[in-house]
Design brief:
The protein contains eleven helices and eleven strands. With 334 residues, it is α/β, with parallel strands linked by helices. It has two domains: 161 residues, 3-Layer(aba) Sandwich (D-Maltodextrin-Binding Protein, domain 2), CATH 3.40.190.150; 97 residues, Periplasmic binding protein-like II (D-Maltodextrin-Binding Protein, domain 2, 3-Layer(aba) Sandwich).
Length: 334
């Protein structure tokens, strides 16, 4: 009987053990993401900003990082990587581990660049995890206060009279502001000479020192206008800017153009959706915080939030738009 009991109980014991093991294994599988989620982040997060320190975008991203790190519980460390028209960071971001500890600013120059070169180093649609869209820039054209160009019409008249003589600074070749200025000149029947810099602040300094005639860039130059050191010729927003009530929009100047170049936050492809949600929620809260709203107001940067799904869709559609635009203008970097 004892032998029979041992033999007979063996399969039953194994069956019970097997069921317990399976249940334990299933429970571990179900709870693993939650456990991983609770641990993220457990060290500082690196945020790549492709502009010089002190530029409008840099100040905005630093503000977001400062607010977001309070809820994340870990520092968000800004790493400036200016150059290549704001795309110097893109390859490093695409190649980083998709663990949520390397993020980067995603903007339209990164979307556009693959269509400007013969051998693209990344595909903006497939090589990144797009987390959320944040806001845009207030662009415009400004000259030094003592410039002979009193307004936009005067500037264009002089440009038509001396093709290629007048110069404009931007934050880089094939940036949104560069292409928009080229299109504006084409519409106006004028020829301008582009002088690219590594960031908006450098372009503004070049205007103030008399190296170039004007800057066509984001609103880093607005404080200089308010201080009387520069004069704005036009803004590229849908409506006039409250801080510059006398400055006309492109629409008022006869051009059906509104240029804000919205940007967002992305990481490498293949990020855990649970980690993406943590980052989305933290940076969305930071975007709508009073502290960040004050910074956006300082630079007249319109809030243009999109969630993860919406932003991913926007990038796919915008990539097709950029490809078409680059082909139409015939611009190539190599």
């Amino acid at each position: 009987m004892g032998t029979n009991a041992v033999v007979g109980s063996g399969p039953v014991g194994l069956e019970r053990l097997s069921r317990r093991t399976l249940l334990a294994s299933a429970a571990a599988t179900v709870t693993a993401p939650a456990v991983a989620q609770e641990r993220y982040p457990d060290r500082p997060i690196r945020l790549l900003v492709p502009w010089t320190a002190g530029s409008s975008s840099d100040v905005q991203m630093r503000s977001l990082a400062e607010v977001a790190q309070q809820s994340l519980g870990q520092p968000v460390v800004i790493e400036n990587r200016p150059g290549a028209s704001g795309t110097l960071h893109a390859q490093a971001l695409a190649a980083a581990r998709p663990d949520g500890y390397t993020l980067g600013q995603m903007h339209l120059s990164v979307v556009r660049r693959p269509f400007l070169v013969r051998q693209p180093l990344w595909n903006t649609v497939t090589d990144y995890t797009h987390i959320l869209r944040l806001c845009g820039w207030m662009y415009g054209v400004a000259v030094k206060a003592d410039s002979p160009h009193r307004d936009w019409r005067d500037f264009i008249a002089r440009a038509r009279a001396s093709p290629g003589r007048l110069t404009f600074a931007t934050s880089g070749i094939a940036t949104t502001n560069h292409l928009a200025m080229e299109e504006l000149a084409e519409r106006e029947g004028a020829q301008l000479t582009h002088v690219p810099y590594r960031g908006s602040s450098e372009g503004m300094t070049a205007v103030l020192s008399g190296q170039v005639d004007c800057i066509a860039d984001s609103s880093v130059w607005v404080p200089q206008v308010e201080a009387g050191q520069m004069r704005a010729l036009c803004v590229w927003t849908a409506d006039r800017v409250p801080r510059l009530p006398s400055v006309p929009t492109l629409k008022e100047l006869g051009h059906d153009m509104v240029i804000t170049s919205p940007y967002g936050l992305s990481g490498p492809k293949g990020m855990d959706p649970a980690v993406v949600r943590v980052l989305h929620d933290a940076f969305k809260a930071a975007l709508f915080s009073p502290a960040n709203a004050a910074v956006r107001g300082q630079f007249d940067m319109p809030e243009q939030y999109l969630d993860t799904e919406q932003y991913t869709d926007f990038i796919a559609k915008r990539a097709e738009h950029e490809r078409t635009m680059v082909q139409r203008l015939g611009i190539k970097l190599d």
